[in-house]
Input
Amino acid sequence: EGQAVYSVVARLVLSPEWPKMPSNDDRVVARLVAQFLAAIDSLMMPARKWRDHRCWGKFRTFPDFQHLEDLVYHALLRLWAAQRTAAAASAAASATSGVLPGAAAANAAG
Output
């Protein structure tokens, strides 16, 4: 159940059409994503615009919205942690290589 929600949440929020959220509050974002996945119309994600999206209403038959929202919240935390880890690993790899980003291209061009 949690893994299924995670994979859909990741697919949704990493898609290019996903908008920038008006809030940085994790719980607000989780509620909005859960509403989207439950096919609940909202001002931020109106059904008339989003109902044809492949993830819209993916969990509309989920029996407990609060539980869905909690699963979405934990999925988002997990996804954001993975993104931070990947960014840190990339930065560390750049630092240990001794090449600043963009420097390799400048050296190649020069």
Summary: The mean pLDDT is 87. The chain is about 60% helix and 0% strand. The first helix runs from residue 2 to 13.
